[in-house]
């Protein structure tokens, strides 16, 4: 979790200076704030995350303590599949994360209801990912999203516009959930070859094989 430090500093001539740091890791920000306070010239110090939420020192310390026992260091792979004959879709997702000093991989898929295209299946698959993250208890954390649907990722990042109303409905829903969970997203388009595990899960969902499994990873996993 990255934050900016907002610091009101009292100069030797008793003048106030308001300073804003670059984005820094929250743990490092707390350590810096301790150093600021040791000067004896700190009037106020606050922390602002990438969603604009303002935290006091105590609030940020408490949040980091809570997060330590919850999923973090999260990387998500997603993919959507579509059957033209049945107009059914399948969503596949793989979530890698760390919790209580252990690393895990969650593999899950879902059979989607009637949809119109493979593109829509990709948006629905990303929405499925957001639901998985909410169920895992992910909040106020950076999350890396990887998939071979460059259109979905580029539109979510704001790099590409979306002109289709049906897709904008999905985008609005995803972005609202992102804000609700205070997730700091990083979008990384990848190749189909790099996304084969999520693709396989989406295909299995289309075939009626519904999977939800969590595996603890070893040091080599």
UniProtKB/TrEMBL annotation:
Residues annotated as domain RNase H type-1: 70-207
Record's keyword annotation contains Nucleotidyltransferase: yes
Keywords: Nucleotidyltransferase, RNA-directed DNA polymerase, Transferase
Domain of life: Bacteria
Name of protein: Reverse transcriptase-like protein
CDD domains: RNase_HI_like
Entry annotated with the keyword Transferase: yes
Coiled coil: none
GO molecular function: nucleic acid binding; RNA-directed DNA polymerase activity; RNA-DNA hybrid ribonuclease activity
InterPro entries: RNaseH-like_sf (IPR012337), RNaseH_domain (IPR002156), RNaseH_sf (IPR036397)
């Amino acid at each position: 979790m990255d934050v900016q430090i907002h610091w009101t500093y009292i100069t030797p001539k008793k003048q106030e200076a308001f300073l804003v740091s670059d984005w820094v890791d929250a743990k490092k920000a707390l350590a810096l704030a301790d150093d600021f306070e040791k000067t004896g010239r700190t009037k106020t110090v606050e922390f602002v995350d990438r969603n604009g939420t303002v935290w006091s020192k105590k609030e940020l310390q408490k949040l980091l303590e809570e997060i330590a026992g919850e999923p973090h260091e999260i990387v998500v792979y997603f993919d959507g599949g579509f059957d033209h004959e049945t107009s059914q879709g399948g969503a596949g997702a793989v979530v890698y994360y760390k919790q209580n000093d252990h690393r895990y991989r969650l593999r899950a898929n879902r059979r989607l209801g009637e949809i119109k295209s493979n593109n829509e299946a990709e948006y629905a698959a990303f929405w499925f990912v957001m639901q998985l993250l909410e169920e895992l208890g992910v909040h106020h954390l950076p999350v890396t999203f990887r998939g071979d649907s460059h259109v979905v990722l580029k539109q979510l990042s704001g790099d590409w516009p979306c002109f289709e109303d049906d897709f904008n409905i999905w985008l609005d829903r995803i972005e609202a959930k992102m804000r609700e969970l205070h997730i700091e997203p990083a979008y990384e388009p990848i190749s189909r070859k790099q996304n084969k595990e999520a693709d396989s899960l989406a295909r299995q969902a289309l075939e009626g094989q519904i999977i939800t499994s969590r595996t603890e990873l070893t040091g080599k996993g």
